[in-house]
């Protein structure tokens, strides 16, 4: 099931073929037309909430009811109008899909989690401390940083080129969405806390990056966390076997798989939940494989990097996975 957030009211929808269905309204219709429900709208609000985090928290009941409602609407219902006559099904090309994250949910990002990415970055650099820095990042337990949830963008949104950089980069990633909250989660138990999977582009400023206290500054700016286009739920996906690609203006730049993560999603979940509760709706991003502009550009003798592979206004970046979908953004000037 592909669960999306759509429209002006940011309602939960289920993607079916080339449409998105208002699943709360569809379930109310299902109850009104197939049962003796006295208050179908109220019952639907409880069982299949219209807002994402409430829908996630409702767990298996919401998903089961959503599936029943979708099957009824597609196969049996006489029309696609809700209990009050409202439209329930919308063409994907006629409706806005928002990033599938809500409110205060956190975007927790693995750092230095693909060996090929880090190795390539080290091989293309010749700073005296590069090797030591790479070894420090890769060794030991997981490393992570946080993206500001207010910096989130959706597929189709323009990516505002930060005025402070001349080296804007892309990072194709997969993210797990937490469905069941918990603290001090064991690796073996983490799968029970995962609700679904989505795509993530960790847009990054590469000028004078420091891996010290101000590292997050290179990772956070308006629109710098593209998430979507939806969350894939209950599709039997192996979290450690998800292909991921990135194309810039149609050119394949990254092609990797979560099987190459240094620290698996269960290991990340265990690390991030130590003494800290993970809440339904939180995202944990995988880190990125080889092929970013920074790990593919050979440092010059004077310490500079050629800018050919770094992004420029007008570039179109697509992050995709055959198991999830595609997110697509055009880079625009900071003044646009």
From TrEMBL:
| Protein name, UniProt field | Fumarylacetoacetate hydrolase family protein
The species is: Streptomyces plumbiresistens
Q: What keyword terms does UniProt attach to this protein?
A: Hydrolase, Metal-binding
Instruction: Kindly give the PANTHER family that the UniProt entry links to this protein.
Output: FUMARYLACETOACETATE HYDROLASE DOMAIN-CONTAINING PROTEIN 2A, FUMARYLACETOACETATE HYDROLASE DOMAIN-CONTAINING PROTEIN 2A-RELATED
The Fumarylacetoacetase-like C-terminal domain, residue ranges: 107-332
- Report the GO molecular function annotations: hydrolase activity
Question: Which protein family is it in?
Answer: Belongs to the FAH family.
Q: Which domain of life is it from?
A: Bacteria
Q: Which Pfam families match?
A: FAA_hydrolase
């Amino acid at each position: 099931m592909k669960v999306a957030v759509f429209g002006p009211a940011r309602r939960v929808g289920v993607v079916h073929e080339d449409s998105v269905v208002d699943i709360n309204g569809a379930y109310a219709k299902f109850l009104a037309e197939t049962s003796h429900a006295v208050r179908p709208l109220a019952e639907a609000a409880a069982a299949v909430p219209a807002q994402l985090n409430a829908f996630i928290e409702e767990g298996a009941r919401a998903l089961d009811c959503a599936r029943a409602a979708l099957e009824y609407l597609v196969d049996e219902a006489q029309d696609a109008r809700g209990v009050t006559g409202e439209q329930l099904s919308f063409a994907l090309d006629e409706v806005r899909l928002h990033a599938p994250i809500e409110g205060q949910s956190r975007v927790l990002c693995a750092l230095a989690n693909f060996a090929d990415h880090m190795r390539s970055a080290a091989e293309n650099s010749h700073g005296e401390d590069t090797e030591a820095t790479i070894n420090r990042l890769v060794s030991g337990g997981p490393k992570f940083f946080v993206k500001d949830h207010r910096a989130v963008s959706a597929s189709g949104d323009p990516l505002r080129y930060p005025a402070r950089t001349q080296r804007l980069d892309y990072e194709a990633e997969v993210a797990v969405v937490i469905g069941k909250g918990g603290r001090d989660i064991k690796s073996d138990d983490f799968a029970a806390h995962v609700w679904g999977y989505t795509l993530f582009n960790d847009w990054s400023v590469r000028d004078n990056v420091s891996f010290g206290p101000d590292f997050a500054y290179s990772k956070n700016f308006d629109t710098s966390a593209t998430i979507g286009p939806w969350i894939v739920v209950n599709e039997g996906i192996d979290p450690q076997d998800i292909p991921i690609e990135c194309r810039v203006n149609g050119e394949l730049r990254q092609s990797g798989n979560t099987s190459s993560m240094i620290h698996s999603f269960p290991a990340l979940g265990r690390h991030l939940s130590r003494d800290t509760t993970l809440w339904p709706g939180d995202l944990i991003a995988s880190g990125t494989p080889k092929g970013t502009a920074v790990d593919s550009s050979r440092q010059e003798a004077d310490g500079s990097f050629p800018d050919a592979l770094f992004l420029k206004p007008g570039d179109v970046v697509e992050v995709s996975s055959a198991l999830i979908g595609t997110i697509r953004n055009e880079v625009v000037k900071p003044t646009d």
